[in-house]
Design a protein that fits this description.
With 69 residues, the protein is of the alpha+beta class. The protein contains two helices and four strands; from the N terminus they run E-H-E-E-E-H. A two-stranded parallel sheet has the order 1-2. A hairpin with a 2-residue loop joins strand 3 and strand 4.
Length: 69
């Protein structure tokens, strides 16, 4: 059973339920097409990360976003 994990920052209220459903459906369909496997066994996990908990180059995304303003 394939497990596909998507990690994205939670910004501007985060992804809507509908966006997450569409993302999961699209990823599942693409996986099934590329690997020629059934889509019913694919598990998609969407993790939304708080921008305080994700850093690049030693700076949190929150810090980077505040410096861009």
């Amino acid at each position: 059973m394939p497990v596909i994990n998507v990690k994205m920052t939670h910004e501007d209220g985060g992804a809507t339920k509908e966006q997450k459903e569409e993302l999961a459906k699209g990823i599942t369909e693409l996986f099934a097409k590329i690997f020629n496997r059934g889509s019913s066994s694919a598990v998609v996990i969407i993790d939304e990360l708080n921008t305080d908990n994700y850093a690049i180059g030693g700076k949190t995304i929150s810090q980077i976003r505040s410096e861009e303003k």
